[in-house]
Amino acid sequence: xxxxxxxxxxxxxxxxxxxxxxxxxxxxxxxxxxxxxxxxxxxxxxxxxxxxxxxxxxxxxxxxxxxxxxxxxxxxxxxxxxxxxxxxxxxxxxxxxxxxxxxxxxxxxxxxxxxxxxxxxxxxxxxxxxxxxxxxxxxxxxxxxxxxxxxxxxxxxxxxxxxxxxxxxxxxxxxxxxxxxxxxxxxxxxxxxxxxxxxxxxxxxxxxxxxxxxxxxxxxxxxxxxxxxxxxxxxxxxxxxxxxxxxxxxxxxxxxxxxxxxxxxxxxxxxxxxxxxxxxxxxxxxxxxxxxxxxxxxxxxxxxxxxxxxxxxxxxxxxxxxxxxxxxxxxxxxxxxxxxxxxxxxxxxxxxxxxxxxxxxxxxxxxxxxxxxxxxxxxxxxxxx
Length: 385
Fold this sequence. Notes:
A 4-stranded mixed β-sheet has the order 1-2-4-3, sandwiched between helices. The chain has helices at residues 7-43, 48-89, 100-113, 146-151, 154-169, 172-208, 214-244, 246-258, 261-271, 282-285, 306-317, and strands at 91-93, 119-123, 130-133, 141-145. By secondary structure, it is mostly helical. It starts with 6 loop residues before the first helix and ends in a 68-residue tail after the last helix. It contains 11 helices and 4 strands, in the order ααβαβββαααααααα.
């Protein structure tokens, strides 16, 4: 499949993504070793060297099962991840009949470059955001919010769709889904180990502090805790690396598809600070056009700031930055008139003679409105015939 944007950087990103995903599997194995080390320490009272060798043997024995279990987790996500995302965001699939404007914009982009048309989904929220999801051609979908459709014009919506199509074409979506799934495994087991430590570790250490060799056991537990914490932090860093560097390429790809850098810039300005999807997890927000963060939290953000992305677009694609955009409130839809005569917000035109109840309205017959008298022709009046 062709890639769009900065081709050399995209190929480099793909290679880095493969290594990063391999690193995630390594983190799963690291967690397994830490869990085995803690289990050996809690089950016996011996030297640190013996505990480390025993934990290594346990890892080798558990390696096939851990690998198969992780792959099963990935397969479950492969099959059901879109259903889970839709349940969190409330997205529903739309057709050309339901959303002709959105459908035609996406279809034209796909036809122009020979891209397979992904499914379209709309999320009923006032937030301004969009994301792409899926792991293969049959699953790919682009989801946009109702707020984005209401606030962005056609050129800006087209730029956002081009951004998401670039993520699909560059393989970003597939990598992000897999990375989030495996990182979920790491987070799950890290939390499980910490819970086990707090529920049983302190009670055990109080009973065995006077035993011979307990110093090695305590040191082994400390090493296991440190390894678990490192695995958990690295899984977060890897997820950020998979997403953050790709947003620049997706923005550039959108400009290349639409040939309109100003539309991408103004779309980002309108989305800025208005993209939070209530009820969605951090994993979903990491796939969106913008994942709003600020202050110290921005150090761990999955997306570059809007200002940095716009600066890159201006430097490499041209265009003009209008600065922060203030959006007016949406006007409520006009109410319909009710049978009881409630106000509908539409001015009513008074009709003469229609105010008398129970009397049908007939237009006034003025003398000027009467037809002129019939004039006889050369063969007499028509009534004579």
